[in-house]
Amino acid sequence: MTDVLRSPGLSTEVRLAIAEIAAAAGAWVPALSPAADRVAYVSDRSGLPRLEVATLDQQTPPAVLSGIDEEVVSVAWSPDGEWIAYLVSPGGSICAQLWVVRPDGTDRHLVAGEDPRATVFAGGWTAPGHYVCSIAPGDGPDADVVLVDVVSGARRTLASGGFLAVTAVSADERTVLARRGPRGHRHVVLVDVASGVQRRVVPLSAPGGAASEDGRFAPDGSAVYLRAALPGRPGVPRSDRTGLVRVPLDEDRVPGAGQVLVARTDADLDAYAVRTDGTALCVWNVDGVTELDLRDLSSGELVRAVPLPEPVMPGWSLSADGGLLLAELTGPTAPRSLWSVPLDGTGEAVPLPSSPRRPDPHLLVTPVCLRYPAADGMELDGWLYTPPGVHGPNRTVVTFHGGPEGQERPAFNPVAQSLVAAGLTVFAPNVRGSGGHGRAFMAADDLAARESSFDDVVATVDHLVAEGIALPGQVGAHGWSYGGYLTLVALTRWPDLFAAGATLAGMSDLRTFFAGTEPWMAAASVTEYGDPVTDREMLAAISPMTALDRLTSPVLLTHGDRDTNVPVLESVQAHQELTALGAPVELLLLRGEGHTIVGRDNLLHLSERVAEWFDRWL
Question: Which residue, of 72, 156, 173, 274, is most buried by count of CB atoms within 10 Å of its CB?
Fold first, then answer.
C-alpha cells in the first residue's frame, strides 16, 4: 500500500521542527594556536558567522573577537601567536576584506580590501607580522599575490600576471607558489619574486600537468608537493583521480621531474599536510565520505588509517608539530562542529564542549547513497532522504547542488532536512560535472557538452519514479547557484517533468551573468560555460531566460540582495519576465545576504518558505 504524507499546509509541529533544524548553529574552519592550547574558529551561534577563540581545555567560555556586524569567512593564527587574521564578507558581498586582531581582542583593524571593488583571497602567515594573500582589485580578471605587514600596514606585491591564488611562500619570501588558470584548467606555478618569472611546477605532459592545486614547499625547501590530477588507467572507469605528487627543486629552485607519491583509484585527494616526521596526512573523498590516513612520504605506503566519528571533514587544523588534529566534522544529523582527533592510533575523537548544541536527532534522517544510470549509461549517484513512515512513492523534491563542480555529500543540509520534516522525500543527485568522481566526470559538462548534463535531470526523475520512490506528477525541483540555473533549465525544457520549482541564487541568463558578476569570476568561468563574446549564441541557447515562455509550473525565486557572485538581477529579471507572461511565480529577496545565506533569521525564513512552497504545489 502506498503511504503518502500530505497536508494542506505546514502544521505548527512541522514549523517548530523546521525552526529547530534551520536554527541549528555550527562551528567551522578551526585554527590552532602555535602552542596548541587555544583555537580560533567561526561560529554562527550568535546569529551571524563570527570569530571566536576558546581554550582547548574549555575552562573559559568562548570569546567573540570580530565586530558585531562582521560576517567572518575564515581564520588563521600567526606562527608567533601574536595575531589572528580573518576574512570578512562585508554585507554578504563576495568582495572580502582582511582583518587582524590580537588574541585578547585588542588592536582589531582592517589591513586589506578597503576598496569595495576588491576581493581578498585567504593565504597564510609567512613570518611574524607578515601575512600573504591574493587580491583581485575588481577592475579586471587578475589577482596579485601581496605580502601585508599587519603592524605597519605596508604592502608588497610578490607576484602578478594572471589570476594568482597563493598557496605557499618560501621561508625567505623569495619564491611563491600560486595556482592560476580558469576553472578546470588550474595549475600551480612557481614564481621568482625578484624577476617575476613564472614556471609551471609540472609540465603539461607530466602527471598532474593538466591540473594541479595546493602547492606546498617541503620543510627543507628541496621540493614542492602538489595535489594534482593523475592520468586515468585504461579500462578503469573514473581512475583519473587526484593524488599527491612530489617535484624536486634544484639550487636555483627550478622544478625537476615530478613523482606520484600517493594515489587511489577509488578516491580523490581532497587535502593533505606534510608532517616533519616523514609522513603525510591525506584527506580522501570516497564517494562523498571523508577518509583520513597517514602515508609514508618515501614509499606512499599506508602507515595508519584515522577513524572519524562523522562522514565529512570540510576543514581542519594541524598543530605545528603535526601531532594534534583539530577537525571540523559534519554529518546528516550533525551541524559542523569541532573535534580533537588523535593521530597516534590511541584513543578516539572527542568533540570540543564549546561547539554549539545539536538539533533534536529525532527530527533528522540519514540519507542513503543511490546509484543509477544516465541515458547514455554513465553511472550517476545521489543521496536519498526518506521521511519516517514512508514506505512507497511519495511527493519528492530533487535538489541540485551548486558549482557545477560541487558535490552532494552526507553533510548537514538544513533545507533538505526541513523538506523531510514537511513530509517530502528529497533526492540530491550528482549529475555529470560534479566533483569527487574524477577529472573526466567533472569536465563532462563543459562548454557544448552541457546539454548532456541536462539529460541527467530527466534520467534522475525517471529512475525515482520507476523505483517507486517518487509519485508521478508530484516531483519538484530545487537548486542553489548553478543548481538554481539547472532547475530553471529543466522547468523550461521539460515543462511537464516537475510540478513546481524553487531556486536560490540561480542564473537565469548566462550572458547577463557574465556581464554582472565580478570580473575575475567571469574570466574563470569561460572554460566552464563558454566565452561571452564568441560563444554568445550558445550561451543564449542554454539560458532559461530565452525560453521562459515554455515554463508552466509555479516557481519560487529566492536570492540574497547583496549577491555579487550570481548578481541578484538574475532572479529579478526572471521574475519580471514570468510575471509579464502571467506565470505563477514569486520572488523572495533576503536582505543583507550574499551568495550563501548565513543569517540565522534568513536561513529559517528561507527553509520555511521552500518547505511551504513544495507542500503547497506537490
Answer: 72
